[in-house]
Design brief:
28 helices, 4-stranded antiparallel β-sheet, alpha/beta
Length: 672
Amino acid sequence: MQSETINNHAAFIWSVADLLRGVYKQSEYGRVILPLTVLRRLDCVLEPTKEEVLAAVGRLPDTLQNRDPLLAKFAGQSFFNTSRHTFATLLGDPDNVAANLRNYIAGFSESARDIVDKFNFDVQIDRLDDRNLLYLVVSKFADLDLSPEVVSDLDMGYLYEELIRKFSELSNETAGEHFTPREVIRLMVNLLFRDDDELLTKPGVVKTLLDPACGTGGMLSVAEDHLRKLNPQARLMVFGQEVNAETYATCRADMLIKGQEASNIKFGNSFDDDQHQGERFDYLLANPPFGVEWKMVADTVKDEHATQGFAGRFGAGLPRINDGSFLFLQHMISKMKRVDEGGARLAIVFNGSPLFTGGAGSGESEIRRLIIESDMLEAVVALPDQLFYNTGISTYIWVVTNRKSLPRRGKVQLVDARDHFTKTGKSLGQKRKELSVGQIDEIARLYGAFEEGPQVKIFSNESFGFLRITVERPLRLRWEITDGTLSAVAADKKIAKLDHNQREALLNQLRTHNGTTYVAENEVKQVVQDALLKATADKPATVVKSVTEALAIRDPDAPVITDRSGTPEPDPDLRDQENVPLPPMIVTYAPDPTARLETIEYRSAIDDYLDTEVHPYVPDAWYDPDKTKVGYEIPLTRHFFTYLPPRSLHEIDAEINELESEIQSLLLEIAE
């Protein structure tokens, strides 16, 4: 829940928009307001030590090798500013605000200056100065106290997010691509660290955490705060990557002020410009954009998938082009510390699509197969809808790890937390619900207890797998020459290519056999060949085949059509596909999707299914082993479905009678 301080500060900052109106479009307000908010925060943080830094600048020669670390030490931060200006002094020279502001920005140490550069703010300085607005805007921010004593690091994160939400709404962008509601992050962090209390409370423990789509850094901040409260002596080194320049700059500024290594926050797309290549982490968190296509990086991703396979990040498969959620999951799995390094855990937010989209053998199914058969999927937690700012759909937290505790091995836990929410006081975008502290604790408790109940189901890994088999039935045909089949012959594409006179001659020859029926294919072929010879003086095999097929009629009482070896031919029109549950087994992931299809367990399971579910109804059916595929899906809502019987007819009749009586009474009142 945002504090009154944040609401007041956000309202004050937003009032700058009144000055920009007419010069900037609404969608452009953020280009001015966000970088100045970051600059003012940096200014307030450095203010107490500003004079000491300037004094040190006068004493220390520019050529001194360790000058920057010494200046940072005087500043009491990991960054500093050597300019004589502050926001307050900029106002003392109204005629030179632009030049002095540039001098002020240039005075920042490299780590802070990189942040400002990503905002491309120099363009806005010229634009504001040309319209005589720069002094007015800077004076507004000079009146804003963003010192850490007034606005905590946590509240500053909220402030950034509130501003970005407003800018996103005005520009019709999705604010949820940049940040996640803090209570959702707290829940994710609780789940991520839940079973690691003993590990994380060791004195001096150092752990690493990566968010490959870090936005403004909310997940990194909450995770760091959580570990600090759990163990003040522990250290969480956070890493991130962000593709949006402005939110990257905001995140990096936040990390810089908090004393984290800001250089760990990288700029670029995690898929085609992996800035943490070769690195592995203890923990990973992410809320990737829902349903966003990955066309822009498709060439790089497909090339890595094809050339590197499981040696790369995307060996299991590729999701459909309009949703890159599963690419993030595979990317994160590739960043997990190996088991011999202590292993890793990750939590990621998805919409419902990754649970079931894609049939057996598809990219999505193969990715689910990877994490389930590798025994990495620990839990899926269903959240309430309307939790996020940019969408009202239901969302799910997936917890994935390569170091499951002994009781969890070979199992997947499903938690139904859809009813755990409180209504927000007012809507924020599409966010109308939130999680209270008590609800977060209860969801975490349900997850940690690992006990079945109304809101918790526990399944073996193979419960989510199935064998997609192709069931065939024999082709049964007879052939007849009737007006109907002759029309089919005339409409055939190969027959249509014949000369008009030849085509009519062929049809006339066949009409001489009108009303005849054949049970053997050779018999009707002979008739067709004779008719073709008389009509065209030739009998091309392709034409004979087309005419014969057009004269064929499917008949369940006709003999079975077989090939030369006597094997029944399948009827494509009767072909069906069935899902056979995977038999109980200890499953270990095999990269080759057909590696275990002909094992005794699989064949036995398919045979049993045919005997009980198929043969009692179609005794002549069989399955084609070459077309069998393994599939995985997680039908979470189905497992928590509660049947509600319909009301009785007596109850419905009584309600209708009551309504009719009310209507009659109203009509009588009108008549009177």
